[in-house]
Design brief:
The complex is a heterodimer of chains A (178) and B (115).
Chain A: H1 2-10, H2 18-36, H3 39-56, H4 66-92, H5 107-122, H6 125-136, H7 141-148, H8 152-177
Helix pairs in contact in A: 2-3, 2-4, 2-6, 3-4, 4-7, 5-8, 6-8
Chain B: H1 2-18, H2 27-72, H3 82-110
Helix pairs in contact in B: 2-3
The chains are: A mainly alpha (178), B mainly alpha (115).
């Protein structure tokens, strides 16, 4: 399906690009927000990523899936933006935002899930990204390597550390709650 | 083994609970308008680039021709030795050429996707 729309866009049908926006914007946003911890920046990064996809569609060799290629662009863009944000934070002493604030549908759910959000917030950007790609998007380690550019060993280490930190974060939150 | 599966399921559950969706309804339109603007700009830049390249090549040929002519000529122009005149001309051509080349480089960079 992706290839069909790639061909359409390459033939000059710009509107066909809406298919990619509809299909991948939420997934891309989820990846970007797991790295950036900021809704506004994540949206900007996804927009930039789509622009890069459009400009670079000609050079897409189709050796990997479109989704993998797109994720790689989102991940690169997000880490580049994160560097800039961290520099600004050092300069202006901006405090971290609570990524998962207001995510629950109601107050009861928010109270129940608060410790989960807190534990997720405590993870490092690369740990959140690894968990997202491995568990939510169901990517294999080798595919995560392709998307992130990390080595296979490093990816495994990050995944292991992410699981461990998530569990200890959950435990800590439960202790604090009780 | 079962414990590991339970833990994995729990992580998936947590990630599903914390997964975010884009709330902006105008996201698609924003990107599409950026793309359309980009395409429009690209055609304008390509015109500029062609013109810029033409002037660069024509200027270089003319400049080199004029310099060679002045260097080879033995008579003085406005009291200045033609060889000196040629050197001054060569210097001006170099400066203008570098500026023109930099302009072309910038135009190309603007429209080269960096992935």
């Amino acid at each position: 399906m992706d290839n069909l729309y790639i061909d359409k866009v390459l033939r000059g049908d710009t509107e066909a690009f809406r298919y990619f926006l509809k299909t991948y914007k939420d997934m891309g946003y989820n990846v970007a927000i797991s790295i950036l911890n900021d809704e506004y920046f994540a949206e900007e990064v996804v927009q930039d990523a789509f622009m890069k996809v459009f400009k670079g569609l000609k050079s897409f060799k189709r050796k990997s899936k479109f989704k993998t290629w797109f994720y790689r662009i989102v991940v690169n863009e997000s880490f580049q933006r994160l560097k800039k944000i961290n520099k600004e934070r050092e300069l202006f002493d901006r405090t971290d935002t609570d990524l998962y604030a207001g995510l629950a549908n109601n107050e009861e759910e928010e109270q129940g899930n608060k410790f989960i959000y807190h534990a997720m917030n405590k993870l490092l950007p690369n740990e959140r990204l690894a968990l997202n790609l491995f568990y939510l998007e169901e990517y294999k380690v080798s595919e995560i390597v392709e998307i992130t550019g990390w080595s296979k060993t490093n990816t495994k280490v990050i995944l292991h550390r992410a699981r461990k930190n998530l569990h200890s974060g959950l435990e800590q939150s439960k202790i604090n709650k009780s | 083994m079962e414990n590991q599966k339970f833990q994995d399921d729990m992580i998936v559950d947590i990630l599903k609970k914390t997964a975010r969706k884009l709330h902006s309804n105008s996201f698609d339109d924003k990107v599409m308008s950026k793309i359309n603007y980009d395409l429009k700009l690209k055609s304008q830049v390509s015109k500029q680039l062609k013109r810029s390249l033409f002037f660069f090549v024509a200027g270089t040929i003319l400049g080199i021709g004029a310099t060679v002519f002045f260097m080879m000529s033995s008579s003085a122009i406005l009291g200045i030795n033609t060889r000196d005149f040629g050197l001054i001309l060569l210097f001006i051509i170099c400066v203008v050429g570098i500026m023109s080349f930099d302009n072309i480089r910038r135009l190309i960079n603007t429209y080269t996707p960096q992935i």
